[in-house]
Design brief:
Elements (H helix, E strand, L loop, with lengths): L7 E5 L16 E5 L7 H11 L7 E5 L5 H10 L5 E5 L11 H13 L4 E5 L12
Parallel strand pairs: 1-2, 2-3, 3-4, 4-5
Length: 133
């Protein structure tokens, strides 16, 4: 089934079945909503790319506190036309260590990236208190 009328799609990352037959060829804005599992980056990209051509995305919204830097790197690698990137309640506090290959990939992505708008939204009440009292 092909749905041509949709330009914005909201999906749960862990809700994408491997045998999905629905396609959204005109989607340019994608919102990834929270999941309860850690997704394999490559499998995540392949599953989403089967329903939406990632190369045509211009807006990406990530509303998932479990989404990590490795998933972001893979997404930007295959979605080179993203102009607007929004993070909602994404945890940037987690420590991560990038391999040499990942650092090279980040450098390559940063040279070709078309992102001109970055928005970070968070619920400050959920952040740990930094003040001691």
């Amino acid at each position: 089934m092909i749905i041509n009328s949709a330009s914005h799609l909201k999906i749960g990352i862990d809700k994408i079945p491997a045998d999905i037959v629905i396609r959204f060829p005109n989607v340019t804005k994608l919102t990834l909503i929270e999941n309860d599992i850690q997704s394999n980056e490559q499998q995540l990209i392949m599953n989403i790319n089967r329903i939406i051509p990632l190369i045509q995305l211009t807006h990406l919204v990530i509303f998932d506190r479990h989404f990590d830097i490795f998933q972001l790197i893979e997404f930007l690698r295959f979605s080179s036309n993203i102009q607007s990137l929004t993070f909602i309640s994404v945890s940037f506090i987690d420590l991560f260590c990038l391999s040499i290959e990942q650092i090279d990939l980040v450098n390559c992505i940063s040279k070709t990236s078309k992102v001109t708008k970055l928005c970070i939204q968070d619920d400050c009440s959920s952040l740990p208190s930094l003040a001691k009292g």
